[in-house]
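Below is one record:
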Amino acid sequence: MAKVSLGAKTMTLPTPAWMIGSYDAAGKPNLMTAAWGGICCSKPVCMTVSLQKPRYSYAALMERKAFTINVAGEADVAKVDYCGMVSGRDHDKFAACGYTPVQSELVDAPYVAQCPLVVECKVIHIQELGVHTMFVGEVLDVKVEEAAMKGGKPDPLAIKPIVFAPEDRHYYGLGVDLGPGWSLGKAIK
């Protein structure tokens, strides 16, 4: 099948639509929406998020060396979008979204009480990458609402995480369960 070359772009499908929680220098809780992030290591368990220096949250992560990843459900897509549209310099995003900030007991960052999945990270590495700085956070804990669990594990269909497509700048839901990993492939011989 023929492929169309799009050139060098920030293109992979999907990217996360995470709200990154942090405290500013005065201790005010803030959220920013980030799509540039993901899992980067299994041992120690680490996640990355990449921010540009002018972003309000950049200084908070540099100073506090901590952040939370807040995974909202599809019903909160407008709130996720809002947290990426306005700056914490000028807006209290927690208040505007009706979210409750909860101080993590493990890292110097707040998380969103209403999000079904929260990841608490301690910054262990900072890498300058051009216009973005990548923050590597060691995961100290993952919190999941009981109602979003199935068989002792987070249930993606109950969490309904939001994903983002950078090229068309649209948010999407997950879709359907296609089957178990490390199992479906056994049918190929």
The first strand starts at residue 15 and ends at 16. The mean pLDDT is 96.
